[in-house]
């Protein structure tokens, strides 16, 4: 498969999960209530702190809400077909701040034999590049061969930190699109597949700029 890497073809495509492949309708108000935190608290910050401190009670509450959302959610337009098409021509993985269990519940058969790196597999969540490095290590691949496809600044920053390409799928459910990605697409079908086939010369150097933090739950 051609495109994206500086003089190198893309052999690894790593997808974010929530908002990119699947809409995970977490009831944030209910989750905050069950965690005993107010509406101003950032769930992502709390989650990382719980991981750092080994707070299994907090993690169990979040896990339960994610699993419920995974059963109630829906695929983003074109994501099953995109996964199938890419898996025929390159190595594909999912890198998520959610759990592997939530991903496999949501994707169903589309997760069969798919490498999923969830929060239980890392010490630091995106935007830290640890998870992306773990994917590349599993595949025996270099960062220049990889494209990280996501919808938030976490994905763009993780790709930049690892030296991989970033492709942002514009998410109509978000009020913003993160800055600093190497490319932007509107969908996961023709648009993304076209980008990943383009010659490397049409792209800037990977991780050319690192975006400022955007909103987060």
UniProtKB/TrEMBL annotation:
SUPFAM superfamilies (UniProt xref): HAD-like
A single MF term (Gene Ontology): phosphoglycolate phosphatase activity
GO biological process per UniProt: DNA repair
Domain of life: Bacteria
Protein name: Haloacid dehalogenase superfamily, subfamily IA, variant 3 with third motif having DD or ED/haloacid dehalogenase superfamily, subfamily IA, variant 1 with third motif having Dx(3-4)D or Dx(3-4)E
């Amino acid at each position: 498969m051609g495109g994206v890497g500086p003089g190198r073809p893309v052999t690894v495509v790593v997808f974010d999960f929530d908002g990119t492949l699947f809409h995970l309708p977490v009831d944030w108000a209910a989750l905050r209530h069950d965690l005993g935190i107010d509406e101003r608290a950032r769930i992502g910050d709390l989650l990382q702190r719980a991981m750092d401190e080994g707070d299994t009670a907090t993690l169990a509450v979040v896990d339960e809400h994610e699993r419920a959302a995974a059963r109630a959610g829906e695929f983003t337009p074109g994501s099953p077909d995109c996964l199938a098409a890419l898996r025929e021509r390159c190595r594909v993985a999912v890198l998520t701040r959610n759990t592997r269990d939530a991903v496999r519940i949501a994707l169903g058969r589309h997760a069969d034999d798919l490498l999923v790196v969830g929060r239980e597999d890392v010490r630091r969540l995106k935007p830290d590049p640890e998870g992306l490095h773990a994917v590349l290590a599993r595949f025996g691949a270099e960062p220049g061969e990889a494209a990280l496809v996501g919808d938030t600044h976490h994905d763009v920053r993780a790709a930049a930190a690892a030296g991989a390409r970033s492709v942002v799928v514009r998410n109509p459910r978000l009020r913003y699109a993160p800055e600093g990605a190497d490319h932007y697409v509107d969908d996961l079908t023709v648009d993304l597949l076209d980008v990943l086939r383009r010659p490397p010369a049409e792209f800037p150097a990977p991780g050319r700029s690192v975006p400022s933090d955007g909103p987060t739950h």
